[in-house]
Amino acid sequence: HGPVIGTMLDTVLTYLGLLALYRLTKEFDATRCNAVCSLRKMLTFCLSFVLFPKHFSAFHAVGLALGNGGGLLLHFAAERHKAEKEKSKIV
């Protein structure tokens, strides 16, 4: 029964994740949704080191820095886009 339960659990969690993503997409723009998904991936990555201890190498640090940097760039781009959109409504 183990593989069946694992498959069912994976299906339910995937459904819940997609449902949350669709709600995000409904509420916000695609850039902000992408930033949220990237943040979730980084949190999952960090949590995996807590739950499954392993060696943290320089490659991990570089990947984490690049991921955080990309998330910040997406956030700033979304804010700039939002400000430009607001500005064009005023004019």
Question: Which features would summarize this protein structure in a list?
Answer:
mainly alpha; 3 helices; 91 residues
Task: Explain how this protein is built.
Helix 2 (30-51) runs antiparallel to helix 3 (58-90). The chain is mostly helical and 91 residues long. The model has no long low-confidence stretch (mean pLDDT 86). Helices cover 89% and strands 0% of the residues. It is flat, with a radius of gyration of 18 Å.
The total of helices stands at 3
* N- to C-terminal distance: 63 Å
The computed structural class is mainly alpha
Annotation, overall tally of beta strands: 0
Quaternary? single chain
**Average pLDDT for all residues:** 86
* Rounded Rg: 18 Å
Binned, the helix content reads: over 70%
H-E string? HHH
Largest sheet: none
β-sheet strand percentage: under 5%
Overall geometry: flat
Low-pLDDT segments: none
Task: Please outline what is shown here.
It contains three helices and no strands. The chain has helices at residues 2-27, 30-51, 58-90.
Please describe the topology of this protein:
Elements lengths: L1 H26 L2 H22 L6 H33 L1
Helix pairs in contact: 2-3
